[in-house]
Design brief:
The protein is α/β, with parallel strands linked by helices. It has a single domain, classed as NAD(P)-binding Rossmann-like Domain (Rossmann fold), CATH 3.40.50.720. It is 35% helix and 13% strand. An eight-stranded mixed beta sheet has the order 3-2-1-4-7-8-9-10, with helices on both faces. The protein is globular.
Length: 320
């Protein structure tokens, strides 16, 4: 899998928008699920997919907020989903499966970043639980509706360069660090796509992960403004100053590309950025560009899948 982790010269780039990715595409008759599809990059993803004709199920923790944010967008359904609560994930999957619809695209765009130490479920660290375990459970529970041909796209981040999986203390039971916990959770999302693709391709399901770029969205809600000013993201008045920041429309482009690009036919298990397959980054210190080898390693991915199955009690493939 790692040997295929190199750009394919897609013709798109960092400045491409989600609408430009789908220009000329007709997604009529396509059903997509977008977690967090009412906020930040998820909202721009929903707009782009529906503008191209897709029916989008927006899975949101706050249903009323989702309805308000998607007001005026056609072909949208709002369903309640709290990724940090396995009961909520089970309920969402049961409701969707009862509709007897096939899923063509599933985009895991919801997530949290750099939050204060928080425990959910069985004492799980909240970022690992929400960003990874919730999506892991969701995809496995929806497997009957994905089989037969689908793309699953999970939003990772260049933040994965901060941490491999901390196998000796995945839940940060000691020495919690919000950025290391975020980095681990995003390494987990990348590894999830690697192993899901290996298991799923026999049923026509391919999986990708991606770094959307640096974008100011509600994802930063846990960060004090002073911290973002100190990091050089904002000026003293709270305005973006870092030239690398993308617009939300540009930030949504890579996940839309991964979900729909004909160029990716027959491929999967890969980490993308700037609307292309990313390169491996083996530099020291990490460059925060491309994907670290540990986040693209099939054996690490297999190990994480087994751990996730153990923690959640869910495995559509019985850990094959």
């Amino acid at each position: 899998m790692i040997s295929k982790q190199s750009p394919i010269q897609s013709g798109f780039g960092a400045a491409t928008t989600a609408a430009e990715i789908l220009e000329g595409h007709d997604l009529s008759g396509t059903t997509a699920i977008v977690t967090g599809g009412h906020s930040g990059l998820g909202l721009e993803t929903t707009r782009a997919l529906t503008d191209a004709g897709a029916r989008v199920v927006v899975a949101a923790r706050d249903v009323e907020a989702a309805r308000a944010k998607t007001n005026g967008i056609s072909n949208v359904e709002i369903e309640q989903l709290d990724l940090s609560d396995l009961t909520s994930v089970h309920d969402f999957a049961q409701r969707f499966l009862a509709s007897n619809r096939h899923i063509d695209i599933l985009i895991g765009s919801a997530g949290i970043m750099a939050c204060p130490e928080t425990r959910v479920g069985a004492g799980w660290e909240a970022q690992f639980a929400t960003n990874h375990l919730g999506h892991y459970a969701l995809v496995n529970l929806l497997w009957p509706a994905l089989k037969g041909g689908a793309r699953v796209v999970i939003v990772s981040s260049a933040g994965h360069h901060q941490s491999d999986i901390r196998w000796d203390d995945v839940q940060f039971t000691k020495d919690y660090d919000k950025w290391l916990a975020y980095g681990q959770s995003k390494t987990a999302t990348a590894l999830f796509a690697v192993h899901l693709d290996r298991l799923g391709q026999r049923e026509g399901v391919r999986a990708f992960s991606l770094h959307p770029g640096a974008i100011l969205t509600p994802l930063q809600r846990h960060l004090p403004q002073d911290e973002m000013i100190a990091a050089g993201w904002l000026d003293a008045d709270g305005n973006p100053v870092d030239a690398i920041f993308k617009t939300p429309q540009q930030g949504a482009a890579t996940q839309v590309w991964a979900a729909t690009a004909p160029q990716l036919a027959g491929m999967g298990g890969l980490y993308c950025e700037d609307c292309d397959i990313a390169s491996l980054d083996e530099s020291e210190p990490p460059s925060f560009v491309g994907v670290r080898p540990y986040a693209a390693d099939p054996e690490q991915a297999r190990r994480l899948w087994a751990l996730s199955a153990h923690l959640t009690g869910i495995d559509a493939f019985d850990s094959k």
